[in-house]
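## retry 2 of 3
previous attempt timed out at serialization; input unchanged, resubmitting
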Amino acid sequence: MDHLLHLVHVKILAADLLSVTIQHTSPPAFLRCGRTVARVELVGIVVSRDRREKFLSFVIDDGTGCVPCILWLNHQYLNASTSSGPSEFDPTAEMALKMSEEVRLGTLLRVRGKIATYRGAIQITVRDVVVEKDPNSEVLHWLQCVRLAKECYDLPPPSAQGGT
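## retry succeeded, writing output
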């Protein structure tokens, strides 16, 4: 199962995310208890927000730590059609702009994305953002993180147990 853990969004607390081991390969790999983790899901409150032309940078605080996140808004540049310049309707850019409007200070969010590094620090490159209406969702996320850590994420990798 370990080889599949990098394919899913791992529910994680900020303290655990910020303490993953970074393997300086190309691209970098991130290890938690010897298991490769690439995508994460985090629930917390927006405590900082900085909107620029091409991206929205914000920080999520889940009570165990603060995680920087970046939501790229420049999909219109990345998905430009080669013949006539940028396309008139780009659903990816529209979705990114809509998500950026939901990121407001003090808002409880569920953030999913890929782990990345920027200037040596861990951050999340955001794939999607969901505003949580129920304040209990943060506590539920904590409980799910603790249960999954005990039952899955923090177990020794199969290779360390003598299996394949």
